[in-house]
Give the backbone structure.
Amino acid sequence: MNTKVSLAGIEFKNPVTTASGTFGSGMEYSDLVDLNRLGAVTTKGVANVPWPGNPTPRVAETYGGMLNAIGLQNPGIDVFLERDIPFLKQYDTKIIVNVCGKTTEDYLAVVERLSDAPVDLLEINISCPNVKEGGIAFGQNPKMVEEITKEIKKVAKQPVMMKLSPNVTDITQTAKAAEAGGADALSLINTLTGMKIDINRRKFLLANKTGGMSGPAIKPVALRMVYQTVNAVSIPVVGMGGIATAEDALEFLMAGATMVAIGTANFVNPRATLDVIEGIEDYMRRNQVEDIKELIGCVK
């Protein structure tokens, strides 16, 4: 039974990774999850300098999910290179580094610092607000998507995967723009913008007013967007958004995703990634599927 998949020229032992921002760099989970079993670990977003993140409260539960306005708090690239990469290199898993920034120069600075690092793939978070453009996310304007992808591809030594924002009218436009800019792969979806109000305090629950919604409630939207994207571009796609079980993951694979990422489910069930991997293997055994590639994109 073969669960190996190939994405952007890299072979993964299985199609399951973690969604950025839900798993740290694996340290917090390493006592609970055997990281050697994962296809890859996708790290929390890394910036060129430490980011303090947003004021609290910055997490709220919602029906079928959660809102977060963490603001990409991270210790910066120096600490990441010194601490996180050596930690992950102890394990037999691929390393996908999520990169964030407030200007194109910020992104390029991180990508250049990572050029000699032993990491396999760069995931570029273009849902960050572009300060030079008045705060619109890079990923909401197809022209900006193509431009930043081109700039990153000029300096990146590893394959580049652009992480698409769902907060757009037509996801295929930004997907095509990333492909035109030279992206090697795409990952989607990032969180949907949402809000919650505390009726007793008559105030917004999050200090930021809005936050990113994730969890099971967004899965049908994510699945639809992944399917649309797979059929609009010729580069591989990593699907995510509300995946909590093997059944969820199989839906994304059948819709055409080459890999899947588990996010919010990690907070509820730290073993979610392993449960999904074991569940996919069990499904393949029960249905006599010899190679996982038989399932990828089988629903047209």
